[in-house]
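In this supplementary section we document a worked example of the pipeline. Step one takes a protein sequence of length 349 as its only input; no multiple sequence alignment statistics are reported here. Step two produces a three-dimensional model, which step three serialises into C-alpha coordinates for compact storage. The input and output of this example are shown verbatim.
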Amino acid sequence: MSRAGTRRPRPAALSALIVAALLLAVTGCAQRSSTTPPGVLNVGQISNSLAFFPLFVAEQKGYFAEEGVKLGERPRLGTGAKVAAALKSGSIDLGAGVMTDALNLARIDDKGRLVANLVDRYYVDVVVGASFAGASPSDPLDQRIRALRGKKIGITGPGSGTEALVTYLFAKAGMNSATDSELVNLGSTAAAALGALKGGRVDALAFFQPIAQQATAAGIGVRFISPAAGDVPGLERTSHGVVFTTQRIIDKKPKEVAAFQNALGRAQRFIHQADTGEIIRLLGLYLKGIDPKALTELPALMRSEIPESIGFSRSSFDTAIGFHRVTGLVKHLPSYEQIVPPALRTNAT
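The serialised model returned by step three reads:
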Protein backbone atom coordinates (compact mmCIF):
# COMPACT_ATOMS: atom_id res chain seq x y z
CA MET A 1 0.00 0.00 0.00
CA SER A 2 1.30 3.51 -0.72
CA ARG A 3 0.36 7.02 0.11
CA ALA A 4 0.87 10.04 -2.11
CA GLY A 5 -2.69 11.10 -2.84
CA THR A 6 -3.49 7.84 -4.65
CA ARG A 7 -2.76 4.17 -4.19
CA ARG A 8 0.43 3.28 -6.07
CA PRO A 9 0.55 0.30 -8.47
CA ARG A 10 2.49 -2.80 -7.55
CA PRO A 11 6.05 -3.23 -8.90
CA ALA A 12 5.12 -4.94 -12.20
CA ALA A 13 2.48 -2.35 -13.03
CA LEU A 14 4.73 0.43 -11.80
CA SER A 15 7.53 -0.74 -14.07
CA ALA A 16 5.13 -0.61 -17.00
CA LEU A 17 4.08 2.94 -16.10
CA ILE A 18 7.67 4.14 -15.87
CA VAL A 19 8.56 2.58 -19.20
CA ALA A 20 5.39 4.02 -20.75
CA ALA A 21 6.49 7.49 -19.67
CA LEU A 22 9.89 6.94 -21.22
CA LEU A 23 8.31 5.56 -24.39
CA LEU A 24 6.26 8.74 -24.64
CA ALA A 25 9.48 10.73 -24.45
CA VAL A 26 11.02 8.54 -27.14
CA THR A 27 8.08 8.63 -29.54
CA GLY A 28 7.33 12.27 -28.90
CA CYS A 29 10.87 13.34 -29.72
CA ALA A 30 12.35 10.38 -31.55
CA GLN A 31 14.69 12.51 -33.61
CA ARG A 32 15.70 14.84 -30.80
CA SER A 33 19.36 14.88 -29.88
CA SER A 34 21.66 17.37 -28.20
CA THR A 35 20.60 20.99 -28.59
CA THR A 36 23.74 22.41 -26.97
CA PRO A 37 26.48 24.16 -28.97
CA PRO A 38 29.90 22.55 -29.51
CA GLY A 39 31.97 22.33 -26.34
CA VAL A 40 28.95 22.39 -24.02
CA LEU A 41 27.07 19.63 -22.19
CA ASN A 42 23.85 19.99 -20.22
CA VAL A 43 23.99 17.59 -17.28
CA GLY A 44 20.95 16.83 -15.14
CA GLN A 45 20.93 14.93 -11.87
CA ILE A 46 18.37 13.67 -9.37
CA SER A 47 19.48 15.62 -6.32
CA ASN A 48 22.47 16.59 -4.21
CA SER A 49 23.09 13.15 -2.75
CA LEU A 50 26.59 11.83 -2.07
CA ALA A 51 26.67 9.97 -5.39
CA PHE A 52 26.83 13.20 -7.33
CA PHE A 53 29.48 14.89 -5.18
CA PRO A 54 32.20 14.10 -7.78
CA LEU A 55 30.41 16.35 -10.29
CA PHE A 56 30.43 19.18 -7.75
CA VAL A 57 34.13 18.62 -7.04
CA ALA A 58 34.96 18.70 -10.76
CA GLU A 59 33.08 21.99 -11.08
CA GLN A 60 34.67 23.56 -8.00
CA LYS A 61 38.19 22.47 -8.96
CA GLY A 62 37.82 23.64 -12.56
CA TYR A 63 38.43 20.19 -14.02
CA PHE A 64 35.72 20.44 -16.67
CA ALA A 65 37.16 23.68 -18.04
CA GLU A 66 40.70 22.29 -17.95
CA GLU A 67 39.61 19.22 -19.91
CA GLY A 68 37.88 21.36 -22.52
CA VAL A 69 34.17 21.10 -21.81
CA LYS A 70 31.71 23.62 -20.40
CA LEU A 71 28.69 22.53 -18.40
CA GLY A 72 25.53 24.36 -19.40
CA GLU A 73 22.25 23.75 -17.60
CA ARG A 74 22.57 21.68 -14.39
CA PRO A 75 18.99 20.91 -13.30
CA ARG A 76 18.11 18.86 -10.20
CA LEU A 77 15.15 16.91 -11.50
CA GLY A 78 13.97 15.09 -8.37
CA THR A 79 13.59 11.56 -9.74
CA GLY A 80 15.55 9.28 -12.02
CA ALA A 81 12.56 8.85 -14.33
CA LYS A 82 12.57 12.62 -14.93
CA VAL A 83 16.32 12.54 -15.60
CA ALA A 84 15.83 9.82 -18.23
CA ALA A 85 12.91 11.68 -19.81
CA ALA A 86 14.95 14.89 -19.99
CA LEU A 87 17.75 12.96 -21.64
CA LYS A 88 15.40 11.52 -24.24
CA SER A 89 13.79 14.90 -24.93
CA GLY A 90 17.18 16.47 -25.68
CA SER A 91 17.02 19.01 -22.85
CA ILE A 92 20.07 17.38 -21.23
CA ASP A 93 22.98 15.49 -22.77
CA LEU A 94 23.99 13.40 -19.77
CA GLY A 95 21.96 12.18 -16.81
CA ALA A 96 23.26 11.48 -13.31
CA GLY A 97 21.01 9.00 -11.55
CA VAL A 98 21.06 5.40 -10.41
CA MET A 99 21.47 2.15 -12.29
CA THR A 100 17.68 1.61 -12.26
CA ASP A 101 17.28 4.69 -14.46
CA ALA A 102 19.97 3.63 -16.93
CA LEU A 103 18.51 0.13 -17.18
CA ASN A 104 14.99 1.43 -17.73
CA LEU A 105 16.28 3.65 -20.52
CA ALA A 106 18.15 0.75 -22.12
CA ARG A 107 14.98 -1.33 -22.01
CA ILE A 108 13.18 0.94 -24.45
CA ASP A 109 16.23 2.37 -26.26
CA ASP A 110 19.01 -0.02 -27.23
CA LYS A 111 21.26 3.02 -27.68
CA GLY A 112 21.30 3.70 -23.92
CA ARG A 113 24.87 3.76 -22.59
CA LEU A 114 26.68 4.17 -19.27
CA VAL A 115 29.16 7.05 -19.05
CA ALA A 116 30.65 6.81 -15.56
CA ASN A 117 30.47 4.78 -12.36
CA LEU A 118 29.97 7.22 -9.47
CA VAL A 119 29.26 4.90 -6.55
CA ASP A 120 30.13 1.21 -6.43
CA ARG A 121 27.92 0.38 -3.42
CA TYR A 122 24.21 0.60 -2.83
CA TYR A 123 24.15 3.98 -1.12
CA VAL A 124 20.56 3.98 0.20
CA ASP A 125 20.17 3.54 3.97
CA VAL A 126 17.11 2.59 5.99
CA VAL A 127 16.71 4.92 8.97
CA VAL A 128 14.21 4.50 11.81
CA GLY A 129 13.00 6.94 14.43
CA ALA A 130 14.76 7.08 17.78
CA SER A 131 11.78 5.42 19.50
CA PHE A 132 11.32 2.65 16.90
CA ALA A 133 10.36 -0.66 18.54
CA GLY A 134 10.56 -4.22 17.30
CA ALA A 135 14.24 -4.54 16.50
CA SER A 136 17.52 -2.73 17.01
CA PRO A 137 20.28 -1.97 14.47
CA SER A 138 22.38 -4.77 15.98
CA ASP A 139 19.74 -7.49 15.50
CA PRO A 140 19.98 -10.06 12.66
CA LEU A 141 19.00 -8.67 9.25
CA ASP A 142 15.89 -10.83 8.90
CA GLN A 143 14.59 -9.60 12.26
CA ARG A 144 15.19 -5.99 11.27
CA ILE A 145 13.37 -6.42 7.97
CA ARG A 146 10.40 -8.11 9.63
CA ALA A 147 10.19 -5.26 12.12
CA LEU A 148 9.30 -3.00 9.18
CA ARG A 149 6.18 -5.00 8.36
CA GLY A 150 3.07 -2.84 8.53
CA LYS A 151 5.13 0.34 8.92
CA LYS A 152 5.00 3.58 6.97
CA ILE A 153 8.27 3.86 5.05
CA GLY A 154 9.29 7.11 3.36
CA ILE A 155 10.86 6.86 -0.10
CA THR A 156 11.78 9.45 -2.73
CA GLY A 157 9.18 8.24 -5.23
CA PRO A 158 7.85 5.44 -7.44
CA GLY A 159 10.40 3.39 -9.36
CA SER A 160 13.30 4.92 -7.44
CA GLY A 161 16.38 3.28 -5.99
CA THR A 162 14.88 3.94 -2.55
CA GLU A 163 11.75 1.95 -3.35
CA ALA A 164 13.88 -0.73 -4.99
CA LEU A 165 15.78 -1.35 -1.76
CA VAL A 166 12.57 -1.76 0.26
CA THR A 167 11.21 -4.15 -2.39
CA TYR A 168 14.44 -6.16 -2.33
CA LEU A 169 14.64 -6.39 1.46
CA PHE A 170 11.01 -7.44 1.85
CA ALA A 171 11.46 -10.10 -0.84
CA LYS A 172 14.46 -11.50 1.06
CA ALA A 173 12.21 -11.95 4.08
CA GLY A 174 9.38 -13.51 2.06
CA MET A 175 7.23 -10.39 2.16
CA ASN A 176 5.79 -7.99 -0.40
CA SER A 177 6.48 -4.30 0.21
CA ALA A 178 3.37 -3.32 -1.78
CA THR A 179 1.06 -5.15 0.64
CA ASP A 180 3.13 -5.54 3.81
CA SER A 181 4.07 -1.88 4.25
CA GLU A 182 2.84 1.58 3.39
CA LEU A 183 5.25 3.43 1.12
CA VAL A 184 5.05 7.21 1.37
CA ASN A 185 6.47 9.35 -1.44
CA LEU A 186 8.44 12.24 0.07
CA GLY A 187 10.46 13.60 -2.87
CA SER A 188 14.23 13.91 -2.96
CA THR A 189 14.77 16.65 -0.36
CA ALA A 190 16.44 15.35 2.77
CA ALA A 191 14.96 18.08 4.98
CA ALA A 192 11.42 17.04 4.01
CA ALA A 193 12.21 13.39 4.69
CA LEU A 194 13.68 14.14 8.10
CA GLY A 195 10.69 16.33 8.91
CA ALA A 196 8.34 13.46 8.05
CA LEU A 197 10.27 11.09 10.33
CA LYS A 198 10.40 13.59 13.18
CA GLY A 199 6.71 14.45 12.84
CA GLY A 200 5.60 10.81 12.80
CA ARG A 201 4.27 10.81 9.24
CA VAL A 202 6.54 7.84 8.61
CA ASP A 203 8.10 5.22 10.87
CA ALA A 204 11.20 4.75 8.72
CA LEU A 205 13.02 6.20 5.73
CA ALA A 206 14.70 4.48 2.80
CA PHE A 207 16.75 7.37 1.52
CA PHE A 208 20.02 8.27 -0.17
CA GLN A 209 23.08 9.02 1.93
CA PRO A 210 23.85 11.02 4.02
CA ILE A 211 20.35 10.67 5.49
CA ALA A 212 21.52 8.47 8.39
CA GLN A 213 24.23 10.91 9.41
CA GLN A 214 21.77 13.80 9.26
CA ALA A 215 19.16 11.92 11.31
CA THR A 216 21.72 11.00 13.96
CA ALA A 217 23.12 14.55 14.17
CA ALA A 218 19.60 15.93 14.66
CA GLY A 219 18.65 13.27 17.22
CA ILE A 220 15.75 12.20 14.99
CA GLY A 221 16.72 8.63 14.16
CA VAL A 222 19.41 6.00 13.64
CA ARG A 223 20.75 3.93 10.77
CA PHE A 224 18.85 0.63 10.74
CA ILE A 225 19.94 -1.17 7.56
CA SER A 226 22.83 -0.16 5.32
CA PRO A 227 23.85 -2.23 2.27
CA ALA A 228 26.96 -0.08 1.88
CA ALA A 229 28.03 -1.00 5.42
CA GLY A 230 27.74 -4.71 4.61
CA ASP A 231 24.37 -5.31 6.28
CA VAL A 232 22.91 -7.09 3.23
CA PRO A 233 24.90 -10.17 2.12
CA GLY A 234 25.47 -10.25 -1.62
CA LEU A 235 24.93 -6.52 -2.02
CA GLU A 236 28.31 -5.34 -0.72
CA ARG A 237 29.60 -4.22 -4.13
CA THR A 238 27.19 -3.11 -6.83
CA SER A 239 27.19 -0.39 -9.46
CA HIS A 240 24.61 2.11 -8.25
CA GLY A 241 25.20 5.83 -8.77
CA VAL A 242 25.91 6.36 -12.49
CA VAL A 243 26.05 8.86 -15.32
CA PHE A 244 24.30 7.68 -18.48
CA THR A 245 23.39 8.88 -21.97
CA THR A 246 22.69 7.51 -25.44
CA GLN A 247 25.04 6.41 -28.19
CA ARG A 248 23.63 9.25 -30.29
CA ILE A 249 25.05 11.81 -27.86
CA ILE A 250 28.38 9.99 -27.68
CA ASP A 251 28.58 9.98 -31.50
CA LYS A 252 27.56 13.63 -31.80
CA LYS A 253 29.77 14.95 -28.98
CA PRO A 254 32.65 12.49 -28.57
CA LYS A 255 35.21 15.09 -27.47
CA GLU A 256 32.86 16.66 -24.96
CA VAL A 257 31.87 13.31 -23.43
CA ALA A 258 35.52 12.22 -23.21
CA ALA A 259 36.44 15.52 -21.56
CA PHE A 260 33.59 15.09 -19.08
CA GLN A 261 34.80 11.58 -18.25
CA ASN A 262 38.39 12.75 -17.77
CA ALA A 263 37.27 15.54 -15.44
CA LEU A 264 35.06 13.21 -13.44
CA GLY A 265 37.88 10.68 -13.09
CA ARG A 266 40.12 13.44 -11.73
CA ALA A 267 37.44 14.44 -9.22
CA GLN A 268 37.03 10.89 -7.97
CA ARG A 269 40.79 10.52 -7.49
CA PHE A 270 40.83 13.88 -5.68
CA ILE A 271 38.21 12.62 -3.22
CA HIS A 272 40.52 9.72 -2.33
CA GLN A 273 43.73 11.75 -2.15
CA ALA A 274 42.76 15.17 -0.75
CA ASP A 275 43.08 16.28 2.84
CA THR A 276 40.03 15.30 4.89
CA GLY A 277 39.52 18.90 5.98
CA GLU A 278 39.25 20.02 2.36
CA ILE A 279 36.71 17.31 1.59
CA ILE A 280 34.61 18.38 4.59
CA ARG A 281 34.82 22.01 3.42
CA LEU A 282 33.57 21.08 -0.05
CA LEU A 283 30.82 18.89 1.41
CA GLY A 284 29.64 21.83 3.50
CA LEU A 285 29.26 23.87 0.31
CA TYR A 286 27.57 21.03 -1.56
CA LEU A 287 25.14 20.01 1.19
CA LYS A 288 24.02 23.52 2.09
CA GLY A 289 22.54 23.84 5.56
CA ILE A 290 23.69 20.42 6.76
CA ASP A 291 24.56 20.07 10.46
CA PRO A 292 28.39 20.11 10.67
CA LYS A 293 28.22 17.10 13.02
CA ALA A 294 26.81 15.07 10.13
CA LEU A 295 29.91 15.69 8.00
CA THR A 296 32.50 14.03 10.23
CA GLU A 297 32.28 10.47 8.94
CA LEU A 298 31.46 11.30 5.32
CA PRO A 299 35.01 11.52 3.86
CA ALA A 300 35.86 7.97 4.95
CA LEU A 301 32.42 6.76 3.88
CA MET A 302 32.78 8.21 0.39
CA ARG A 303 36.26 6.79 -0.04
CA SER A 304 34.83 3.33 0.61
CA GLU A 305 32.02 3.84 -1.92
CA ILE A 306 33.26 6.10 -4.71
CA PRO A 307 35.71 4.27 -6.99
CA GLU A 308 38.96 5.94 -8.02
CA SER A 309 38.15 5.26 -11.67
CA ILE A 310 34.89 5.64 -13.57
CA GLY A 311 34.83 2.13 -15.10
CA PHE A 312 32.45 -0.74 -14.40
CA SER A 313 33.64 -4.17 -13.31
CA ARG A 314 31.58 -7.07 -14.56
CA SER A 315 31.05 -8.36 -11.02
CA SER A 316 29.56 -5.07 -9.77
CA PHE A 317 27.43 -4.82 -12.89
CA ASP A 318 26.21 -8.41 -12.52
CA THR A 319 25.27 -7.75 -8.88
CA ALA A 320 23.20 -4.77 -10.01
CA ILE A 321 21.48 -6.90 -12.64
CA GLY A 322 20.67 -9.58 -10.06
CA PHE A 323 19.26 -6.96 -7.71
CA HIS A 324 16.94 -5.59 -10.39
CA ARG A 325 15.86 -9.07 -11.38
CA VAL A 326 14.68 -9.66 -7.79
CA THR A 327 12.87 -6.33 -7.48
CA GLY A 328 11.10 -6.68 -10.81
CA LEU A 329 11.36 -2.93 -11.42
CA VAL A 330 13.20 -3.43 -14.72
CA LYS A 331 12.32 -6.06 -17.31
CA HIS A 332 14.48 -7.32 -20.19
CA LEU A 333 17.77 -6.37 -18.58
CA PRO A 334 20.65 -5.44 -20.93
CA SER A 335 23.95 -7.27 -21.08
CA TYR A 336 27.25 -5.85 -19.84
CA GLU A 337 28.49 -5.63 -23.44
CA GLN A 338 25.38 -3.78 -24.58
CA ILE A 339 25.31 -0.93 -22.09
CA VAL A 340 28.94 -0.58 -20.92
CA PRO A 341 31.18 0.98 -23.63
CA PRO A 342 34.46 -0.92 -24.21
CA ALA A 343 36.61 1.82 -22.65
CA LEU A 344 34.70 1.49 -19.36
CA ARG A 345 34.93 -2.29 -19.02
CA THR A 346 37.38 -3.06 -16.24
CA ASN A 347 38.86 -6.32 -15.00
CA ALA A 348 38.38 -5.43 -11.32
CA THR A 349 36.31 -7.87 -9.27
